[in-house]
Amino acid sequence: MATQNILLLPGDGIGPEVMAEVRRVLAVIEARGVLSLSIDEGLVGGAAYDAHGVAVSDGDVEKAKAADAVLLGAVGGPKWDGVPYEHRPEAGLLRLRKDLELFANLRPAICYPALADSSALKRELVDGLDLMIVRELTGGVYFGEPKEITDLPNGQKRAVDTQVYETYEIERIAKVAFELARVRGGRVTSAEKRNVMKSGLLWNQVVTAIHKSGGYEDVKLDHMLADALGMQLVRAPKEFDVIVTDNLFGDILSDVASMLTGSLGMLPSASLGAEDENGRRKSLYEPVHGSAPDIAGKGIANPLAMIASLAMALKYSLGKPDVADLLDKAISETLGEGLRTGDIWSEGMTKVGTTEMGSAVAKKFEALLGA
Ligand code: NAD
């Protein structure tokens, strides 16, 4: 069995606490001979700044490039509010995304039946929800030039951001969406604003073209205006399978979708790069939540988003989709037994801490592996 290289970057705040629970699950994976793993650990965010004076060291970036999968906890916290802008904790995350060319951000919104009552929407709208937002992560208006604020002769100021996409950027993200849809529900909805934006028009044309020329016609493709899709996401979210959209709309729509599921502590994500000649992609897996300084060090953080990020790594980078399904099942069954961290707790449920929740999932996962 080939050894897979995993790099753990726990980061700051609750990052190390939730990463410890990932280590527990990885220990089960190794002990049961599911995978042969070489696990390394590095620093990112404030932790890296304290040790090296930068938000991620060159050495750890190189390790991340060489890894089969990188798992990151979270970065940031008030301790580093005053550090120079280029060394702020988030800069470590941005550098990793940029240097690893992680252009595709996958954010699933899954509503576990046991948590359907925690959603802002009615149970029947979200129970069993399982959609995936594929957001373009390295282009669009967050990166386009010019990007500036200039002084006008009349004493006012003028701010410009530039929304820009080239064909190849749209093609590669559309391909990721079509390939994902094939192993999910077979449907892609592409969202843009072709009615008012040239970049939206090109987005629509390129997605349509690659659907035909790329041999993806077995996948059903629909187009929606991004604002209409926003409405539909809160009206009938279960209508969607895979949604593909640009950086800006994806940022907003994925946050909306995340609230359908109840809690930030439940949401994993994956960021993927292009496939190399061996079919291998650079990849980074992390929970959607931040470093939660308000609860850091108290042992009460919900580790499920971090563990579900490992499940995504097993599915998309480590070649073990069946094991990933068992890990997701272990999470679902643990919730089904009434275990809850404080963020998802409700009357009648058993309140547990980070370690108890992680141990319960690891134990259930181990039992499922044996079944
Ligand atoms: P946050 O996600 O850290 O916390 C928001 C709220 O959700 C807090 O009340 C927190 O206690 C709670 N929460 C988050 N994750 C939880 C978990 N796993 N279990 C239980 N409760 C949880 O967002 P924030 O408070 O806006 O930001 C805090 C710091 O994190 C800031 O420095 C911010 O820049 C950083 N941040 C980092 C990332 C990242 O690393 N990807 C993402 C968002 C924010």
From TrEMBL:
SMART domains: Iso_dh (SM01329). GO terms for cellular component: cytosol. NAD(+) binds at residues 77-90, 290-302. Residues 5-361 form the Isopropylmalate dehydrogenase-like domain. Its cofactor is Mn(2+); Mg(2+). Substrate binds at R97, R107, R135, D227. PROSITE patterns: IDH_IMDH. Coiled coil: none annotated. GO terms for biological process: L-leucine biosynthetic process. Mg(2+) binds at D227, D251, D255. GO terms for molecular function: 3-isopropylmalate dehydrogenase activity; magnesium ion binding; NAD binding. Its EC number is 1.1.1.85. The record marks Y142, K193 as: Important for catalysis. SUPFAM superfamilies: Isocitrate/Isopropylmalate dehydrogenase-like. Binds 1 Mg(2+) or Mn(2+) ion per subunit. Keywords: Amino-acid biosynthesis, Branched-chain amino acid biosynthesis, Cytoplasm, Leucine biosynthesis, Magnesium, Manganese, Metal-binding, NAD, Oxidoreductase. Pathway: Amino-acid biosynthesis; L-leucine biosynthesis; L-leucine from 3-methyl-2-oxobutanoate: step 3/4. It is found in: Cytoplasm. It holds the Pfam family Iso_dh. Catalyzes the oxidation of 3-carboxy-2-hydroxy-4-methylpentanoate (3-isopropylmalate) to 3-carboxy-4-methyl-2-oxopentanoate. The product decarboxylates to 4-methyl-2 oxopentanoate. Belongs to the isocitrate and isopropylmalate dehydrogenases family. LeuB type 1 subfamily. NCBIfam families: leuB. Homodimer. HAMAP family: LeuB_type1. This is 3-isopropylmalate dehydrogenase. The gene is leuB.
